[in-house]
Write a structure and sequence with these properties.
The protein is of the alpha+beta class and about 260 residues long. Helix content is about 30%, strand content about 35%. Strand 9 and strand 10 form a beta hairpin. The chain is globular and about 55 Å long.
Length: about 260
């Protein structure tokens, strides 16, 4: 069964502060409220506030510390786990209207490949989701996602054409805590070609992902195939921290991760 947990306070705080930067409410050079002011606003102690600020600082979203007041940086922002995982959040935050079309949502025994990704024996019940993702109505990505049966069953009560599956599962208490990503290239198969409106065998960017609970249990495995003329990926590194992989709309300058 799913171990339903509450999202830690410091993570909720960092998500809220990150959203203020992403929305433009806090723009480059904006000096953040003091720790005391943030504690008063959110009704918490300094510990969670300091953890949230440290997370934003490690991502390059804010500067400061060691006696200097934090302010919004002009550095390339690294996407948080939730933002990276959610195509809908990334698209909306990048100024696009996200969309989706569901081809299939089905419960079936896991094939050998899916079982290996989910780290379960072959033929264990799983739920498969096949969707087309769109940017401003343009086909951008094919999403092939599999879930353990106790996680995937939640989707039968959700309109998968309505938005982010990841956000919905988080709201249902599914403890998605970390992910492992592998990005490579793959040729479009006949289905990809038709859905993405590209020639058969055209090169696609593929992201293979496994999302896990804090205890390591795999809760989701996905094979996402992107049109490289619409979406690319970027990594921003620093000496202080290794930033996560981020998506970039391919018409943007390559230095502007989104």
């Amino acid at each position: 069964m799913i171990n339903r947990v509450t999202i830690p306070l410091h993570q909720r705080l960092s998500d809220e502060l990150r959203a203020r930067v992403a929305s433009g409410r806090w723009q480059r050079g904006f000096r953040l409220p003091s720790e005391a002011e943030l504690c008063a606003e959110f009704g918490t102690s300094r510990g969670p506030v300091r953890q949230a600020l440290a997370a934003l600082r490690s991502e390059g979203l804010i500067t400061g510390g060691r006696g200097r007041p934090p302010e919004v940086s002009g550095a390339v922002p690294a996407q948080s786990f939730s933002t990276f995982m959610s195509f809908s959040e990334w698209a909306a935050g990048s100024g696009f209207t996200p969309g989706q079309h569901t081809y299939e949502l089905a419960r079936r025994p896991a094939c050998a490949e899916v079982a290996a990704m989910l780290d379960v024996p072959a033929d264990t019940p799983a739920v498969d989701l096949l969707r087309l993702r769109l940017l401003d109505g343009v086909p951008a990505m094919i999403e092939r996602t599999s879930f353990p049966a106790d996680v995937g069953r939640l989707l039968f009560d959700f309109d998968t054409d309505s938005g982010s599956v990841f956000a919905y599962l988080r709201d249902q208490g599914v403890p998605l805590a970390r992910g492992h990503h592998v990005v490579d290239a793959v040729a479009a198969d006949p289905f990809d070609s038709d859905a993405l409106q590209v020639p058969e065998a055209a090169p696609l960017l593929r992201e293979r992902r496994r999302s896990m609970a804090a205890d390591g249990r795999v809760l989701e495995a996905s094979d996402d195939r992107y049109r490289p003329d619409l979406v690319t990926f970027s990594i921003e590194n620093s000496l202080e921290a290794r930033a996560p992989l981020t998506r970039v709309h391919s018409t943007n300058d390559a230095t502007e991760a989104t």
